[in-house]
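Handoff note, outgoing to incoming analyst
You'll be picking up this chain. Sequence as last confirmed:
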Amino acid sequence: MAKTPQAAGPGKTRPNVTAAASAPFANAAWMAPSEFEAVIRRHPHVVRFFAGHHQRPIQALFAGTLAMVAPSVAHQVVLDLVDRPPAPFNFEPAAFHLHLWTEGAGLISHTAYVEKAAGRYPFLRDADYPGA
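Most recent structure output, in case you need it:
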């Protein structure tokens, strides 16, 4: 990744995404975060940066775009903002990201859970609820 990604190369203007196994803001050994940040900043048409490997859903602004670390479909790393290694894991619900591109809205990202949750329950409002 030391070179400019092909989709983000010189003269490219179409919106695109860039992906890597690890997020540069969360322990990336493959390139110094500042180098990678400079690469992405040179290409403002990169609308999203995707990563995985951290087994924890994370979103952060990085290099002028939204960076998203995918949740795990197996175990999740326990959320610990103090960073006390080694990080333990738990069995939070498995999930994945689903992305949809539309011309009008651009890239829309959803988090979907693998296990089926109970119900499809209608939202019921009292008759006197404003706007009902």
